[in-house]
Automatic annotation (TrEMBL):
InterPro entries: IS66_C (IPR039552), Transposase-related (IPR052344), Transposase_IS66_central (IPR004291). It comes from [Clostridium] polysaccharolyticum. It comes from the Bacteria. It holds the Pfam family DDE_Tnp_IS66_C. Residues 130-171 form the Transposase IS66 C-terminal domain. Residues 17-123 form the Transposase IS66 central domain. This is IS66 C-terminal element.
């Protein structure tokens, strides 16, 4: 290298993609304390342009078909609309880590459960775990919430009035009053 010449750092496309993601996660971290409305507004102002730049950069890439980078690019392009859904609601998370961590006990234990031998048993098990984990995610005591559902759902006419189920959703004020962990 000639004297005075600086060594140029070469960044791979994979590193560039990772850097876009890291920047988005960093921006999300800075918004943690904001209300959902403020978070949504700020996401649209700051993260949407970054995502648009990412999509433009992605379109210019021409990775080898079948390579790990090629598979990642195809996946990102195919899932683009869905990957931006979190921008539409300030309550949503940029990643599904919370959901994956919530179902981990179920997925690791299912091999030991005899009722998962049938499709119906597996479906029932998944439904119950979904209800329990959604209750936990909304700050409810799962046992109280299941009791609450079993007590109130039979009295509703949700087939003709599906809006009656709104009060039974774990994020509703009524369900939180009845089943909050703080209520004990």
């Amino acid at each position: 290298m000639p004297p005075g010449a600086e060594k140029q750092l070469i960044v791979s496309p994979a590193e560039t993609g990772r850097d876009y993601c890291n920047k988005l996660f960093h921006m999300e971290k800075e918004m943690e304390s904001l209300s959902p409305e403020e978070r949504k507004k700020l996401r649209l102002e700051t993260e949407k342009p970054l995502l648009e730049a990412f999509w433009c950069w992605l379109e210019k890439l021409d990775p080898l078909s079948g390579s790990k980078l090629g598979k990642a690019v195809v996946y990102a392009k195919n899932q683009g609309t869905y990957l931006e859904n979190y921008l539409l609601d300030g309550r949503c998370s940029i990643s599904n880590n919370l959901a994956e961590n919530s179902i981990r006990p179920f997925t690791t234990g299912r091999k030991n459960w005899m009722f998962s031998d049938s499709t119906k048993g597996a479906d029932a098990s998944a439904a119950v775990y979904s209800v329990i984990e959604t209750a936990k995610a909304n700050g409810l005591e799962p046992f109280q919430y299941l009791n609450f559902l079993l007590m109130y759902i039979p009295e509703t006419n949700f087939k003709e009035h599906p809006e009656e189920l709104e009060d039974m959703m774990p994020w509703s004020d009524f369900a939180k009053e009845q089943c909050s962990k703080k209520r004990k």
